[in-house]
Amino acid sequence: MSLIDADFVMGDDHADLTSHDTYTKGVPHATFARLRKEDPVSWIDEEDGSGFWAITKYRDIIDVSRDYETFSSRMGIRLEEMTPEETEARGTMMETDPPDHTRLRRLVSKGFTRRKVESYEEQIRELAADVVETAVAKGEFDFVTDVATQLPMKMLGKLMGTPDEDGDHLVELGDSLLGNTDPEFTDFVVDQMDTDEYRMVPFRSPAAIEVFEYARSQAAARREHPTEDIITQLLADTTDGDPLTELEFNNFFTLLVAAANDTTRYTMTGGIHALLSRPDMIAKLKAAPDDDERWITAVDEILRWTSVTTHFRRTASVDVEMRGKQIKAGDKVLIYFVSGDFDADQFENPYHFNIDRVSNDHMAFGRGGPHLCLGAWLARMEVRVTLQELLKRIDGIEQVGDISRLRSNFIAGIKHLPVAIR
Ligand code: HEM
Predict the structure, then answer these.
(1) In this predicted model, what pLDDT tens digit does every residue of 215-239 receive, in sequence order?
(2) Which of 61, 109, 333, 373 to probe ligand 1 with, by most ligand atoms within 8 A of CB?
(3) Whose CA is nearest to atom 31 of ligand 1?
(4) What is the residue with the minimal CA distance to atom 21 of ligand 1?
(5) Rounded to whole angstroms, how far apart are CA atoms 332 and 314?
(6) What is the 8 CA–ligand 1 centroid distance (Å)?
(7) What three-state secondary structure class fits 239?
(8) What's the CA angle centered on 105, arms 104 and 110, to 5 degrees?
(9) Nearest protein CA to atom 17 of ligand 1, as residue
(10) Cα(106)–Cα(304) distance, rounded to whole angstroms?
(11) Is the model's pTM score more than 0.90?
């Protein structure tokens, strides 16, 4: 067996990791492989004269994630620099460190536990079945626009108690937030035009203003008519601390709309894309009941294989040495989850897609630190249920056109995948 699966794109081994365009050709895995081997704590220059440390080994990424005192999230989690004033106004839970982070996280985490999320499985499955049925009836369709784009936001809406008919609009808003570097998703491409006017709102995007408005109206409705959903829970007074302030609620809602939307979409899509050329695995999954262990391992392998959140940034709070390199206070440090997930010191045969992989401690949701993805259980369930509902309705599936990929150095994903159903 070859060490690299036939459909796996290794890419350029000296790619510019900062360029959004690089990722339209796929994640440059060969560059990460070289860095892991030759220079795992590597200084990378940026065009504007600044630069950052790229951390590419699995173990080092965990060490950085864990040590939030040395590697802070307060100065931002993306490469883009923010002034302290912008950070204050735009900051979500992601841009805080403990103990501030602990308070916010405690307030919201109850809504996203495994048990809580599983209580929504039936509703989520119904939604998935509906969307998949409509797409499959067409015979040929774009898996991304017709299925994967439709579902995550509507699924999140079930937990939040937002009306189903608002789903499409929230998807559009979510797209312009995280897709703020791709002209297909926004008219305000951050690195191609002056977005200074929006520097005080999340993602430097006018869409965030609309999300704020929407959050405000939903909050007002819940205050008047409290329900069982997560929004009601977030607004309620708590015994273990102050409730969220209005700005915190708006920022958190915006964070959810951004974080839950395209990450899950691109993971589902990456999963189907991997399965397309592996009919034997489709057959195995079709034969597995919904609650079979194989579905759990398959979804985790899809998460590892796609690793859609390529990196998160931290900023060094003090001078620190790593693998002989002198990281200075104030330096940007990028932890490349997408590289850690293919580190051969952690994963046997990492370039091989294996739905039965065991001990798959991937870092698609982060690992080891306080910011581990809040939506991990929800996302896992969404991917599993969507694939289950699709595979139940088809005998086979094939790609019938070219794929295209998102223009972003932050989120990697296939944004169009034309398929035909057998
Ligand atoms: C497959 C889909 C998803 C992937 C790959 C993903 C990935 C990630 C990653 C890598 C982080 C940062 C981890 C760290 O810094 O240690 C994160 C944080 C976060 N994610 Fe997700 N995510 C996904 C889906 C979701 C969903 C569905 C939600 C909605 C509830 C969500 C909400 C969040 C939030 C709120 C945070 C910030 C947590 C914090 O700062 O404490 N994510 N996610």
Answers:
(1) 999 999 999 999 888 888 888 866 5
(2) 373
(3) 375
(4) 373
(5) 6
(6) 25
(7) coil
(8) 120
(9) 373
(10) 27
(11) yes
Place of tokens 């965030």: 208
d(CA 96, CA 255): 13
How far apart are the C-alpha atoms of 362 and 61, rounded to whole Å?
12
Please identify which residue in the block is written with the tokens 């081997």.
37
Distance 355 CA to ligand 1 centre (A): 22
Class of domain 21-421: mainly alpha
Q: In the chain, where are the structural domains located?
A: 21-421
Task: Output the residue whose Cα is nearest ligand 1's atom 43.
Answer: 373
Give the span between the Cα atoms of 233 and 222, in whole angstroms: 9
Band the pLDDT of 185: cuts 50, 70, 90: confident
Q: How confident is the model at residue 200 (pLDDT cuts 50, 70, 90)?
A: low
Please state the atom number of ligand 1 nearest to the C-alpha of residue 364: 5
For residue 343, give both structure tokens: 């580190």
Give the Cα separation of 198 and 84 in Å (integer): 15
Which neighbouring-strand residues pair with 420? 140, 398
Condensed to tens digits (0 to 9), the pLDDT of residues 133-176 reads 999 999 999 999 999 999 999 999 989 999 988 988 888 888 87
The per-residue pLDDT for range 267-317, each reduced to its tens digit, is 999 999 999 999 999 999 999 999 999 999 999 999 999 999 999 999 999
DSSP strands (E only) in 281-370: 312-316, 320-322, 325-327, 332-335
Q: Which ligand 1 atom sits closest to the C-alpha of 92?
A: 40
Residue type, 413: G
Q: Which amino acid belongs to residue 223? A: R
